[in-house]
Amino acid sequence: MSRSKRIGKAGAAAATVASERVRQAAVRVKPFASSARAAGGRGVHKARALAAPQVKSAGKAMENRVAPKVSAKLSSAAQRIKPAGPRRRCWRKLAAISLTAAAASAVAAVVRNRAKPDLATPGETDTDSGAPAAKMPDEKARTSAGAAVDRQVRTS
Fold first, then answer.
1. Which helix (H) or strand (E) holds 81?
2. Distance of CA 8 to CAs 1, 16, 20, 51, 56, Å?
3. What integer pLDDT is reported at residue 85 of this predicted model?
4. Mean pLDDT of 42-67
5. ∠ CA 27-29-31 to the nearest 5 degrees?
6. CB neighbour list of residue 127: distance below 8 Å, 6 or more residues apart
7. How far apart are CA 125 and CA 134, in angstroms?
8. Cβ 140 vs Cβ 123: under 8 Å
């Protein structure tokens, strides 16, 4: 028999013996592996039970302390980068103020003219007719030099 055949048979026998020993070791270790897996599962459950309240309190702390600061920073950054809007024309406001001022001055003029006492005395004369001006209760009947019946003064 050649040397390589002898080594080949010895190697095959050694492999058979080694595989048998591995099977025996697996049979002995299997109960320990099962209990280790169960113990690991219990440990993971315990660790999760202990970590959950801590994670919850950390989340609340972030929500109450950090989140408002981050939110404020984001809001201020948004305000800084926001482009300016188009300028609003305030002509409507100006028109409303002008209209109100005109109406108020018209009301003041009407009140002033109604409260004005009759200045014509019986001794005065009207320049157009040369006759004395008559004092009449009707306001439209009163006229003076250069004034029309509707109280508008003519300049020419």
1. helix 67-81
2. 11, 12, 19, 58, 65
3. 76
4. 86
5. 90
6. 145
7. 9
8. no
The arithmetic mean of pLDDT across residues 95-124, rounded, is 80
Q: Which tokens sit at 51?
A: 């970590």
Reduced to 3 DSSP states, what percent helix, strand and coil does the chain have, rounded to the nearest 5?
70, 5, 30
pLDDT at position 43 is 79
Cα separation of 14 and 1, whole Å? 19
- Alpha carbon 26 to chain centroid distance? 68
CB 140 within 8 A of CB 149: yes
User: How far, in Å, CA of 103 to CA of 71, rounded?
Assistant: 51
Cross-strand partners of 153: 147
| 151 φ/ψ sector (left φ>0, alpha ψ -120 to 50, else beta) | left
Query: pTM for this structure?
Result: 0.30
Give the range with max mean pLDDT: 59-68, 84-93, 130-139, 142-151.
Answer: 59-68
> And the tokens for 91?
């002509």
Q: 143, exposed or middle or buried, with CB in 10 Å at 0-12, 13-18, 19+? A: middle
Q: Which DSSP string corresponds to 80-127?
A: HHSPPPPPPP-HHHHHHHHHHHHHHHHHHHHHHHHHPPP---TT-B-T
Instruction: Give the residues across from 125 on adjacent strands.
Output: 132
